[in-house]
């Protein structure tokens, strides 16, 4: 069962429960900077470290981790890092436990829930960014042959998410902005997702409230109290998408990351306002079975939680936050080729979660607005 605990002091207790013989510690390149590093270095359990992967990890990176885990016969995982590190840890666990091994995390099996006994390799996840919520989701994102793949399996939901906001002290301010915008978009998208439930909507609302109340102090004033609230917000957003999944803004963002190199949260955040703008003017294309009126009601509730009187005002607020943080839209180099690639990149499965139907032509038009000439 997934549990959320607060404070690095809890790590000893969790390790006692896990009772590992040999712990596989997945960390990213920020590890030497982290103010909890000593605490991890001094864990009194035999450890094997793995950090040979990049942000937006590749399938090949994960394979190296699978080999090492197996060679060293580890029995539990501690993942300390951003969404990339936590996702690498989840993929390693899935591949080691699944009968198909590595093949379990490459197409076409990524979309199937390959049966694994997740309890055989417990994961403790300590996020060092406040954005993806990966510590509380059953998804992992990796890149295979240049394309983004989402691995979904209930068995890879970490057993424990340990939230320690002081790790955010070393996160560069641009990364803080990008990751927080990922959490904000996840909260908004989860709330309007056609798969939303009362629980996911409650989590999404908490995420939006915490971000609205604390984003300035977190980003502009670097206040520890605000950091703890944004870390919690990101976790709420993660719990929300773990139920509802994300929608078109996320689906549209991945190729923006590949073509323009924008970090994940920045890429999603440039897509969301154009998407929402389109949706409020095309409510007749609603595909949420709960209907157009329900969707309008949800748009109203999201707007209110963002402190706006209407969706139009909420979109303006969202754009203003982007402006204040200096997060700009990408600029095209070879415009027609890039727009063609972008419009052809969107995963139709994710579009089914979106409350408004989006045709290939619409997607092209949206990218035409998102990417500046
Ligand atoms: N599994 C999920 O549910 C889920 C959800 C959303 C996004 N994602 C995926 O997560 C990845 C993005 O994760 P992310 O936004 O957390 O970034 P990241 O993990 O890619 O890290 C970005 C950079 O920040 C550095 N960093 C991390 N924490 C730091 C700290 N405390 N101090 C200094 N530097 C630090 C890392 O070393 C890295 O260079 C993408 O691949 C995205 O697709 C996964």
Descriptive overview:
With 373 residues, the protein is of the alpha/beta class. The chain has helices spanning 11-18, 37-41, 59-72, 83-97, 173-192, 198-219, 224-244, 248-260, 264-281, 292-305, 311-325, 335-343, 348-351, 360-370; strands at residues 3-6, 22-27, 46-50, 76-81, 123-127, 139-144, 147-152, 160-163. The strands form two sheets. A six-stranded parallel β-sheet has the order 1-8-5-4-2-3, sandwiched between helices. The N and C termini lie far apart (49 Å). The chain binds nicotinamide-adenine-dinucleotide. Residues 28-30, 33-34, 55-56, 81-85, 87, 128-129, 131-132, 134, 137, 139-141, 167-168, 170-171, 175, 179, 182, 264-265 line the site of nicotinamide-adenine-dinucleotide.
Small-molecule binders here are: nicotinamide-adenine-dinucleotide
The overall strand count is: 8
Extract low-pLDDT stretches.
none
The CATH superfamily name of the largest domain is Dehydroquinate synthase-like - alpha domain
Q: How many H/I helices?
A: 14
Architecture per CATH nomenclature, i.e. the level-2 architecture of the largest domain: Up-down Bundle
**CATH class membership of the largest domain:** Mainly Alpha
Strand order within the widest beta sheet: 1-8-5-4-2-3
Tell me the strand percentage band: 5-15%
């Amino acid at each position: 069962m997934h549990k959320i605990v607060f404070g690095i002091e809890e790590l000893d207790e969790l390790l006692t429960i896990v009772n590992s013989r040999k712990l596989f510690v997945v960390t990213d390149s920020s590890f030497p900077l982290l103010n909890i590093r000593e605490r991890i270095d001094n864990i009194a359990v035999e450890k094997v470290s793995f950090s040979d992967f990049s942000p937006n990890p590749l399938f090949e990176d994960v394979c190296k981790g699978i080999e090492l885990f197996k060679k060293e016969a580890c029995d539990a995982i501690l993942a300390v890092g951003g969404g990339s590190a936590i996702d690498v840890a989840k993929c390693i666990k899935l591949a080691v436990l699944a009968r198909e091994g590595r093949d379990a995390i490459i197409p076409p099996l990524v979309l199937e829930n390959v049966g694994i006994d997740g309890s055989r390799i417990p994961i403790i996840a300590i996020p060092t960014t406040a954005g993806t919520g990966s510590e509380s989701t059953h998804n992992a994102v990796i890149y295979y042959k240049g394309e983004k793949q989402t691995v979904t399996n209930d068995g890879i939901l970490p057993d424990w998410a340990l939230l320690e906001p002081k790790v955010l002290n070393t996160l560069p301010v641009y990364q803080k902005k990008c990751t927080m915008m990922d959490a904000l978009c996840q909260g908004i998208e989860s709330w309007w997702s056609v798969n939303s439930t009362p629980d996911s909507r409650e989590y999404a609302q908490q995420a939006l409230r915490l971000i609205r109340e604390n984003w300035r102090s977190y980003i502009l004033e670097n206040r520890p109290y605000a950091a703890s609230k944004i870390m919690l917000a990101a976790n709420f957003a993660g719990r929300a998408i773990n139920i509802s999944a994300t929608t078109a803004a996320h689906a549209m963002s991945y190729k923006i990351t590949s073509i323009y190199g924008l970090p994940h949260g920045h890429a999603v955040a440039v897509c969301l306002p154009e998407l929402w703008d389109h949706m409020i003017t095309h409510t007749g294309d609603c595909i949420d079975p709960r209907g157009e009126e329900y969707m309008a009601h949800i748009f109203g509730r999201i707007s209110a939680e963002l402190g706006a009187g209407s969706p139009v005002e909420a979109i303006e607020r969202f754009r203003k936050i982007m402006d204040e943080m200096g997060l700009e839209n990408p600029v095209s180099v070879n415009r027609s080729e890039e727009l063609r690639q972008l419009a052809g990149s969107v995963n139709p499965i994710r579009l089914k979660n979106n409350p408004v139907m989006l045709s290939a032509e619409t997607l092209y038009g949206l990218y035409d607005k998102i990417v500046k000439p």
